[in-house]
Amino acid sequence: DAGITQSPRHKVTETGTPVTLRCHQTENHRYMYWYRQDPGHGLRLIHYSYGVKDTDKGEVSDGYSVSRSKTEDFLLTLESATSSQTSVYFCAISESTRARSEQYFGPGTRLTVT
Amino acid sequence: AQSVTQLDSQVPVFEEAPVELRCNYSSSVSVYLFWYVQYPNQGLQLLLKYLSGSTLVKGINGFEAEFNKSQTSFHLRKPSVHISDTAEYFCAVLKTSYDKVIFGPGTSLSVIP
């Protein structure tokens, strides 16, 4: 299995509070992604990174920010959590964006915003 | 806009029976196609992918998929399912000129003993 960990694995927080999710990889892959998974929607890309300090928005980036200060860590921050951000969040990594480079997924973080 | 459709949200099937999970995509350009599997409480893992060449692609765990360009489909099949195949299956598309994978909504496969 690819070395990807996510922390925390479960979190319950209140509306309006800031939340940071962490993704850590030991594969030295250049690309890292944050997705959210919701019933009926599959996985939707929030943000991705193509190198240290290089990030870009995905299709559902509103309300989220990211940072990547080291190759191995990619942080997802909800500045002020809302109930619509209750979801399961997955981090993924890949060596490149080309199709021959498979994406490897972390175990997920289940976030509940009350 | 590119989209991926998985017509069946849930597919129940008896053990040792064949199964087909359907996937259709909309794109006017060349694409790469993928199937991912998600077992309960786990992340996704790649089942198989089509890049080019033979339209019949074989993956892990006895699954295969066939790319049909004229019908813009990439259906997943297995001739005989096992209890352990119970999982969520996601079809995904990557435009050859793009760099972000688009996932379908998923199909939940339940294998009945």
Outline of this structure?
The complex is a heterodimer of chains A (114) and B (113). Chain A is mainly β and 114 residues long.
Plain-language structure description:
The complex is a heterodimer of chains A (114) and B (113). Helix content of chain A is 0%, strand content 57%. Chain A is built from no helices and 11 strands. Chain A is globular and about 40 Å long. Helix content of chain B is 0%, strand content 53%. Chain B is built from no helices and 12 strands. In chain B, the strands form 3 sheets. In chain B, strands 2, 5, 6, 10, 11 and 12 form a 6-stranded mixed sheet that branches. Chain B has a 4-stranded antiparallel sheet with strand order 3-9-8-7, with no helix packed on it. In chain B, a hairpin with a 5-residue loop joins strand 7 and strand 8. At the A-B interface, strand 5 and strand 10 of A face strand 6 of B.
Features:
heterodimer, A: 114 residues, mainly beta, seven-stranded mixed β-sheet, four-stranded antiparallel β-sheet, 11 strands, 0% helix, 57% strand, globular, B: 113 residues, six-stranded mixed β-sheet, 12 strands
